[in-house]
Structures are given as C-alpha cells and as structure tokens.
Predict the structure.
Amino acid sequence: MMAAITAAAAGVQTEILESGPVLGKKILSTGNGRCNLTNASLDPALYQGSGARIAAALIKEFNVRDTVGFFDKIGIPTVAAASARGNDSWIYPACKEASAVRKALELECERLGVSILTDHKVISVEKFEKEFVITTREGVRFVSDRVILTTGGKAFPKSGSDGSGYELAAAFGHSIVSPLPALGALISDSALCPSLAGIRSDAIVSLIVNRSIAAEETGEVQFTEYGLSGIPVFQISSRAVRALTEGKQVTVRINLIPAWKLNDLYLKLSERKVRRGLHESGTLLLGLVPDKMVPTLLKLAGIRLHIPCSEISRDALMKLAYNLQNLEFEINDAKDFDACQVTSGGIPASEVSLNLESLKVRGLYFAGEILDVDGPCGGYNLQWAWTSGWKAGSEAAK
Ligand SMILES: Cc1cc2nc3c(=O)[nH]c(=O)nc-3n(C[C@H](O)[C@H](O)[C@H](O)COP(=O)(O)OP(=O)(O)OC[C@H]3O[C@@H](n4cnc5c(N)ncnc54)[C@H](O)[C@@H]3O)c2cc1C
C-alpha cells in the first residue's frame, strides 16, 4: 500500500493485486492489535540480512520522522511508549488500533485512485520486451510497465504471505537466501520447561552459541511448556535459528536477578537465611522471583522445600545464587513460520540496486519482507516496509 500510494501520488496509474480478501491483513495482528508502526530511537545498525546496509541507507531517505509525518497526514496521529527494555521508545497510532492504520492506508490508496483488486493471487509475472504480463490464479491478465513485488516472506501465512513471491522472483533468475523463521519462540527439551510453564519474569537473556555470548536482551521472558517466549527471546531468535541451521550448539542463559553481582546476591541470600531462621526454605526467595518459580529453583540447588532456612548449607546457597543468574536452556529448535513474526532471508541485496530495482530484469522492484532484511521487535519491520515501499514506489513511478 505504501508503494502504491507513493507511485500514485507521483501521478502514475497504479493497481494493487492482493491474493486475500482484504489489503494489509497482517497489519491487524501487529503490536498485539495496536500496531507498533515505528521506533523513535530506531538504530539502523540493528537490521540483519544481506540487505541490512541497503536498509540502513534507505532509512536515511525515508526515516522515522517521515513515517510519523506520513501517518499524521493520512489521519493517524501517533504516540511513543517506552518499551520493556526501557532504552527505546516504540511508536503506535494514538488510538492504539492497528485496524485504523490499515484502513487509513486503504483510504489513501482510494483517494489517489489506486485500483485495488483483492482475491487476485498472482501466479506468474513475465516480461515481453518492455511490458510485464501478470497472470492471476483467477485467470485474469494484466499488462504493465513496472511491477513491484511486495508479497512479504513466509511468516504468519494465515495473513496471506505464503512465500509465493519467492517463486515469482525466481522465475526471473533471482536466488533466494533460505527463508527462516525470526522473532519467534525457541523450543527446548529442558526438564525445567514443564515446571516453569506459565511463569513470566523480567530477566537478562543471553544467547550462547558454541559457548560464546552472541547476543543479550532485557525484558519479560515467558516460560512455556515447550521452551521460551517473550520479546527478549524473539529478539535473539533469528540468530539462534541461523546458528541451529549451521549445526552449532545453542543455549539460552537467563539472569533472573541481574541487579547484583553474584557474590552480593550470595550475601543477600545469606542475610535472608539468618533473618528467616526457622521459616521454611521457600521463604528465602520471597519477593525476589515469582512465587511459582520457587520450588523449581530450590530443587535445582538441591534444597528441600520444607526444611527451615537455617538448615540450608553454604554450598546449596551458593548454587542457588548461581542458578538465579545462570538458568540455562539448551535450544533444540524454534517455532515455525505459523507462529513467528518475521522471515529472515529472501531476495539477496546483491541482486537489487539501491533503488530496489531487480538487477536481473529492468522494471521489476521489491519492497518489504520479501527482501533479505529483518529487524528486531519494536517497529523495525514495519519501518522497513514503509521505507522500502516509499522507495520502490517513487523509483518505479519515474
Ligand atoms: C503477529 C505479528 C506481529 C507483528 N508486529 C509487528 C509490530 O508491531 N511492528 C513491526 O514493525 N512489525 C511487526 N510485524 C512484522 C510486520 O508485520 C511485517 O514485517 C510487515 O507486515 C511486512 O510487510 P510486507 O508488506 O512486506 O508483507 P506482508 O505484510 O506480509 O504483506 C504481503 C501481502 O502480499 C499478499 N500476497 C502474498 N503473495 C501474493 C501473491 N502471489 N499474489 C497476490 N498477493 C500476494 C499477502 O496476502 C499480503 O497481504 C509483526 C508480524 C506478525 C506476524
């Protein structure tokens, strides 16, 4: 829609072919239905994939301020909210309704005379001399001078992005960096998972690949029956999945009490042991971690649940302090495309110009998640959709 709006605003006849019954269905699910449409403290260096440098360069041309200005102009004022990480601020529509964002984009398309054809799935794009011929599953053919492929990746296929865009590009000789799920939950066989399932806790999450720390994130971790979820886990998932596919050992280490150094934590626990004296061992962690976690953490440190605090040994107390800061989960897999937010992989940067035009065939452009660019949670991926849509739309219109 952003590509179409930009092209139509430049005065060219523009048409959208959408396989689903409605434009922009995925927008409705973004930001838990509130649409985190960009990020006030967006750091372009955080984009990943072969197109990361193109993304960083183009975001200077159509940046966060341009996005906020654009949405304001089409009737969607925005607000910034501090993220769970605390060090950046995520931007939402002021009404906190993703449906308003989707609708305003659609209305703007209509205002500019973009012709919209829903329930038209593109099954082939061919080029004959200077013209493209686009054929839909419904048997309709369209002819045009330029085509912008914005079919998304493979994530969340129920919103329409089923990966079919890759085949359309491959027909022109494009290669595809193997699409992998990103911004999703991680799966672990650890025996800790079933006993911690349903608990949420703020923590520092470290991704350890072959024994070295590869990434670190802060935020609310959700412990589940199958593994780990929550925004800090999503943030590291793309790297975790790449490492797993390369056959590397992947571990997630969780620090539940990062505020103190290990020795200070041990001293605090020792003080608590004395203060709680004859009260049962479970009271040692009262107020430090979610109550439901206590039996599992005590068991892991070899402390029986109902013994008095005074009977906890020095070694067990040390082990408990260590575990509170080093809860480790060996990662076996990640949730698949059905349950992740973004695709990492896609059309490689080496096959597109800085104008997002194909280097294989003139007149074919790409925008959005179909390109090999992915960003962290916090509005990065929609910002890439707006920026690349704006760029491809303006260039194709030329
Ligand atoms: C649950 C969820 C929450 C998210 N939350 C956020 C968030 O808060 N902030 C953020 O920045 N990002 C978020 N994202 C990511 C963001 O939504 C995507 O990166 C973004 O929508 C990608 O835009 P796109 O236009 O490239 O692709 P898509 O939004 O996937 O759109 C592609 C469109 O192309 C259509 N299509 C596909 N193939 C064909 C074909 N062959 N013919 C015709 N039409 C076709 C599809 O039906 C679809 O409508 C979230 C994603 C999910 C799944």
